[in-house]
Amino acid sequence: MNLLGEHTDYNDGFVLPTAIPQRTTVAARRNGGAEFVLHAATLDREARFTLDSQPEEQFARYVYGCLRCLADEGTEVPGMDLHVESDVPMGVGLSSSAALEVAVLRAVRELLGLSLDDVRIAQLAQRAEIEHAGVNCGIMDQMASSLAGTDSMLFLDTRSLARRLVPMPSGTELLVVDSGLSRSLAGSAYNERRAQCEAAASALGVASLRDVDDVKAVESLPEPLRRRARHVVTENARVLRAVEGVDAETFGVLMNASHASLRDDYEVSVPPLDALVALLHAHPSVHGARLTGAGFGGACVALCREGEAERAGRDAVERYGAQGQSGRVLVPRSETA
């Protein structure tokens, strides 16, 4: 999940994700043929394909893309049986596709003895999603899935891929709540937002919005490019402020400002998400909260006082339910789940 730096990765900007405890596991074996047999246990579905043609099933295209990218780079990829199990929530902005891609590539690396480091795994996973799943994504999700841990934040410069682990603010823990609104990146305005950012950068005469340091520089742009660019510039600044080592209260203020920017300038929130975030903002155990992921539904993340996240999540979900919505706490995981 991403704590700060939303929609900045495809603008060569800065991001601050961390890993969730849920996992995706892929088992792979050679089957002696040229066909790939993919069983997705969570979906209870199977797909069969070869490297000569993309499978019709959308879930299989992520796997096909990883295998195809390896083959395109000269790896001899034999036919395989692949079994996927995952408890990473799908369609809620928690990088389930990136987890799948990274797990597939790690399994194939192990099976074939490939010399791919974890950064190269992330790069191949991103390429697979762009070229074969139809999502013109940045590299944040794949880098986080490949390199991040659950007990710290990964500060990543998506242009240079320079990175370092950053401790969480002292005395805090994270809460993730699913809004109950599933969304698909490929079917949303995600690709449109990326195109708008590219148009804004071109109009400003820079390679990407990462190169704009002064938010006043975007004021000359026409709408909606002005607001799109303003979000990216201010969001980068929020990440850089957060990694200076701020306290929990300041980090929460940055999260709240991020959500407002995603809602008003980037326009990727929806009313139920805003309502859930407002409930989290109002809870005494919450320092700050925002949508996480690309938006248009999905999940919210909150920074809470240590030991109080589960209760804050239950309280917010109960009040959210009273508004006619159906949410659920994803992190921390309940001991009875």
TrEMBL record:
It comes from the Bacteria. It is an enzyme of class 2 (transferase). It comes from Cognatilysobacter bugurensis. Residues 2-30 form the Galactokinase N-terminal domain. Its EC number is 2.7.1.6. Residues 247-317 form the GHMP kinase C-terminal domain. This is Galactokinase. Residues 61-149 form the GHMP kinase N-terminal domain. The keyword NADP does not apply. Keywords: ATP-binding, Carbohydrate metabolism, Galactose metabolism, Kinase, Magnesium, Metal-binding, Nucleotide-binding, Transferase. GO terms for cellular component: cytosol. Belongs to the GHMP kinase family. GalK subfamily. Pfam families: GalKase_gal_bdg (PF10509), GHMP_kinases_C (PF08544), GHMP_kinases_N (PF00288). GO terms for biological process: galactose metabolic process.
